[in-house]
Task: inverse folding
């Protein structure tokens, strides 16, 4: 009896120490995020004095420098919420499919949202912000269902390799359809082409307010699915044995990811690889417990997208490199590394 008490006490102490370390990592990540926000409003194609930065943050727009900072503030906010949404949706998709290669871009979800928006603009002349968002969410959801259905055919069900191949093929097919829809429409081709690169430039608080309710619902659903994802990680049979409704848990978790991905694509365009890179890096820090992994992935995604946007402003001065290009340059080598390291096995 005494031995059992000592063992239970040691286990509790270990959990407390582990939670203490994770809390320190969380505070460090928040501090890094604050630093990146400061750099984001201070760095751009125009050099701005720190006095003008602080003045613009307090609401003054008396000169060109302060006006430049005022434009960067909503851009920084959009990068934060979009990065958090993409990082979180990537972690959800990897948990739902138990696939280390799962990502809104690789699984074709981003391109499904893009195709839906392009069809809506070209054929139905949608122009309101809410119409864009609902159309993108519908396209993202349809693409997710289509890829999962294709990947589930044949022996073994939805294996990581089959899902990755189905997603890649779907993404290429949808990309070709986007070109086919846009090609005869010179009046919208320029805007669609620019939007399809993916970026946070030109952000306004009005655009952010339109998308914020959808992202808030997506964040709430995703965070509530943490325990369900922990159960799914044990395998379908064991999760069902523990009383989890596997199909319902998967659908509920996927709904959060689809809302986040679709709404973000509507306002920023398709930004790839962020949902692949961030969950893997966070998993190295916090392990596989989704109660910690999901909030870390959200904060990590916000930080990485913000850092990518800052880098894009610096490396091509006086022009800017869209954040979608920067994340692709980061994500493509990481994708190759994950394939070689994981050998496409299940999580």
Result:
């Amino acid at each position: 009896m005494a031995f059992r008490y000592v063992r239970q006490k040691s286990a509790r102490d270990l959990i407390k120490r582990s939670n203490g370390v994770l809390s320190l990592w969380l505070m460090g990540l928040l501090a890094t995020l604050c630093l990146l926000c400061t750099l984001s409003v201070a760095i751009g194609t125009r050099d701005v004095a720190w006095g003008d930065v602080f003045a613009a943050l307090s609401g003054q727009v008396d000169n060109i420098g302060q006006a430049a900072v005022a434009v960067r503030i909503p851009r920084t906010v959009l990068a934060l919420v979009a990065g958090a949404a993409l990082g979180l949706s990537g972690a959800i998709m990897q948990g739902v499919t138990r696939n280390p290669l799962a990502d809104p871009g690789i699984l074709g979800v981003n391109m499904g949202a893009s195709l839906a928006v392009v069809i809506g603009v070209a054929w139905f002349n949608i122009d309101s912000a809410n119409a864009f968002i609902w159309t993108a969410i519908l396209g993202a959801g349809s693409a997710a269902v289509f890829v999962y259905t294709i990947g589930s055919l044949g022996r073994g069900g939805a294996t990581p390799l089959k899902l990755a191949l189905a997603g890649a093929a779907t993404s290429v097919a949808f990309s070709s359809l986007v070109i086919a829809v846009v090609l005869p429409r010179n009046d919208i081709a320029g805007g669609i082409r620019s939007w399809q690169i993916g970026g946070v430039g030109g952000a306004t608080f009005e655009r952010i307010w339109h998308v914020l309710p959808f992202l808030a619902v997506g964040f709430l659903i995703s965070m509530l699915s943490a325990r369900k994802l922990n159960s799914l990680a044990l395998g379908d049979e064991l999760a069902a044995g523990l009383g989890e409704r596997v199909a319902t848990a998967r659908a509920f978790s996927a709904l959060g990811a689809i809302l986040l991905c679709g709404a973000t694509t509507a306002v920023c365009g398709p930004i790839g690889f962020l949902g692949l890179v961030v969950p893997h890096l966070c998993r190295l820090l916090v392990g596989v417990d989704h109660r910690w992994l999901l909030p870390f992935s959200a904060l990590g995604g916000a930080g990485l997208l913000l850092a990518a946007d800052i880098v894009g402003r610096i490396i091509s001065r006086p022009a800017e490199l869209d954040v979608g290009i920067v994340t692709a340059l980061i994500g493509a080598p990481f994708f190759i590394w994950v394939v070689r390291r994981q050998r496409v096995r299940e999580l």
User: Anything to note?
Assistant: The first helix runs from residue 2 to 42.
